[in-house]
Structures are given as C-alpha cells and as structure tokens.
Specification:
With 111 residues, the protein is of the alpha+beta class. The chain has one domain: 2-Layer Sandwich (TATA-Binding Protein). The protein is built from two helices and five strands; from the N terminus they run αββββαβ.
Length: 111
C-alpha cells in the first residue's frame, strides 16, 4: 500500500472512531466529511445547545504535499499523537492550527 492510501485509511478510521462517540450534549450529533478529491477530512458537530445553533469542526485534517495537516483539533485527545500511534511519523504531521512561526518549535513538521 502506498503512503497516500495509508494516510487516507488512517484518517478515515480515526475520524470514524471519534464519530461513534456520543457527545455529552444529547442534542448534538457528529458527522464525518470525506473529500478524497481535495484530501480534506473532517468531523463536524451539528445540533443545538439551548437556543444556540452548533455547527463547528471538531477535527479537520488535510493531506497536502504528502503530509497530514491538522487544521483543527477541538477534542480532548491529542490528534497528532493518535496519528503517531497509527504509524504516521512526526515529520509527516503539520500542526496547521499553530502560526507558521511557531511550527518549527514543535516536534512536528513546520510545513
């Protein structure tokens, strides 16, 4: 299996596992969004909290230039660590939610 196929499988499995969790708020649901053409993958929370509409990214991952970019991680997990546990090396993971000047200071790829 090539690297890109492996990355896609890992991402889909991880987001699928997260989507099966029940949100603490019974009026919320998780939905996975997989755009293989753009290599953009997301877990979205949708629903209501009292009178307030909730529609936000829980996790947003993209594959850009053969690296996995974590664009959003609003979980109680460390998505980068979960990707590592699945066999993705740190130098192939970019913490896109950090400003470009901060990324070189992390253990992960800068871009």
């Amino acid at each position: 299996m090539d690297q890109l196929t492996h990355y896609r499988q890992v991402i889909k499995q991880l987001l699928g596992e997260l989507a099966r969790r029940r949100p603490a708020n019974p009026h919320l649901a998780y939905q996975t969004l997989f755009d293989r053409h753009a290599d953009s993958y997301a877990l979205v929370a949708i629903g209501w909290q009292h009178a307030r509409r909730i529609h936000h990214f829980v996790v947003h991952l993209e594959i850009v230039n053969d690296k996995i970019w974590i664009q959003a991680d609003n979980t109680d997990l460390d998505i980068a660590a979960e990707l590592e546990r699945a066999g993705i090396p740190k130098h192939q993971i970019v913490l896109g939610f950090h400003p470009p000047q901060v990324r070189p200071l992390t253990e992960y790829a800068a871009a």
